Amino acid sequence: MSASLNLYTEFFCLSERPFSLLPDPDFLYWTNDHKRAYTMLEYGVATRAPITLITGEVGAGKTTLLQYLLHNLDETVTIGLVSNMHEGRGDLLRWVMMALEIPVDKDADYVDRFEVFQQFLINEYAAGRHVLMIFDEAQNMPRKALEELRTLTNINANKDELLQLLLIGQPELRDIIRRPDMKQFAQRIASSFHLSHMDQKTVYSYIIHRLERAGGSAHMFSRAASDRVHEITGGIPRLVNQLCDICMLYASISEREIVGVEHVEAVLRDGAYFTPEQKIENKADAPKGPDQTSGT
Asked: Average of pLDDT values for 47-67?
């Protein structure tokens, strides 16, 4: 099993897979957008902004940025994380208290829980810490929960915010917040950024960065192959990783030390790269498989 998993890493003499789909801060490539997004994250935390908003398409690198932020926050920030909260999965305050590891009496009513939560914020503030609540995949939260979040940010001490919110989600989260009935919530957002797709040039730099981070070199991936990857994936990092990973495997099967555009086409022809938007090509017109490809 291990030999199979390491097939192309051994062939290319890599220390690890450069295109894993798991978010890994060690592989973070700082595009201009990612630099700006992280700056806004840092700004939001440093200025104790009531609400910071980061959005982007699925696979744009939001979770990787979040993990990098969490890795670099110091002990003065108390962190609670709620991922993918949907309507009907319990009330918001209970989720928040669980994320912050605040003991919750299952029989306590909302008023009692709110009093315990408020005292927790005050105690953290008195100890020189502030509380950061992070909601990932926040586009799935019902508007009622978002409005309740806004009211929680009203808890303060003099001029200091006792609770900060960081909302991370897909583009539709911005559309939700821009609705007329969300005006008060939108006015509490002090820091925001939207991550866009990588352009063609950035995709090539991204691929090279990940190869070099895994012990490889720029010569392992041709520019033509990179341009085709950009065309197919639209420059979404997760999709770039998914396609490049399989292309590396195909190149190793063909015993080619450089991933060429023919490997990309072979992957597409075989249906080895799958996305919901993918179009099935006519195999009779597609390039040959990885064991039949020519040199790059």
From this structure: 89
